[in-house]
Amino acid sequence: MQTQQNASFTKRYGAQVAQANAEYKDKPVDLGMRRLPAGIKDGVAKLSAMYTKEQTEDNGMVPKGEVFFRASAVVMWPEAHNGEKVARLTTSRVIPLCNVPAKGHRKATTFIANYGDFQNLIRLLGIAPCPETTQTDPTGQKAEAYWFAAMRTLTDPARGPIYILFSTRGWTPPATQAQPKPAEMVFEEWHGLASKEQVAKIGTFDPAAAVTVQPGPMTPPPVTANGPIPTPTILSIPAPSPATTTSAPTTTPYVDPDEVAALVEVAMGDPNGETPEGAEASARLEELAWQAGATKEQTAAAKDWGEVAEMALGVLFAPPQPAEPTAPTVGSRWMFAKRNKDGANLKNAKGDEFPAQEVEVVTVDTATKTVTVKSGKDGKDIVDIRTKAPVVVKWEWLEPTAF
Prior knowledge:
There is one protein chain. The chain contains eight helices and 15 strands. With 403 residues, the chain is an alpha+beta fold. A hairpin with a 2-residue loop joins β3 and β4. α5 crosses α6 and α5 runs antiparallel to α8. The longest helix has 16 residues. The protein starts with 9 loop residues before the first helix and ends in a 9-residue tail after the last strand.
């Protein structure tokens, strides 16, 4: 191992080094991108996204080219587990909507079995079962549209937040010759809607909100050759709390800041998308940014995923506009360095700019946003060296005094 001389940073920041060390010495090590730890019970998370997507990578539990379903929710409680902060991390469920072959410790599963898990998870959140049969829906298109409509209903921000109950458990595979020390795997389970008492732990739930049986508001479903697709029925979803419901903007889809914060944490920990979680988070951030009006060129040119997140939240990166100069008042004092007609600072024979001098405002012209000034040192008017007329100074050329 080669040793090289370290550059000292205390020469510049000595006192701040001591201050920073005192601030961070007792904080736990930041492990970067983190998954939820095992052992969480009765966790509460806010549903943020539900969608299906085609697998584009040849890795993970879903074969390339097949479709999977993903639901994600932002952890709201507990704040920490076993000393590790978990609030604002994401809990998610990924379910293949395909046949999955056996691989390693994984057993083969059929599309029908995976579909059962898929519809069961949505029904856990209060959606009634799809009423279609092989006779009424021989192609399956009406059933698919029903579940798509259910996903839109559950994630509709106009309904207010939906909170789920979840837990995590750990499992360590048996040691093998190839992996003598296998790492623990963490499985996340969703158990349906959180109760009012469980949601009350996070301090954002209205105990007076009722749980009702009613049809869920949604876009009317399409009509197919086999007849209209039935509207999903909400069986039991907490009514929106006035304190927490956020109205969707009329111009762009609503974006949940909690979801974006969780996605950024994953994407920044895996900026190149080398893991399925990192790739999924970065893809979701780009999707949200495009929905908010950003272009693919803008997201591609972003300096990091934090900037893409701001695009997703509606903060597009237009060139900064100069601040409107504040109108100075007669008698106010400023610093001013002489300039030419183009606004460039005047320089001496050596090429150095003349230093700014303290001046006092004599007159103010709000129409042209200019002033005339006199020297703060001797009280003489600042004039043009040739014409002897008072120098006209633009407001933005004035600089605040040091005192």
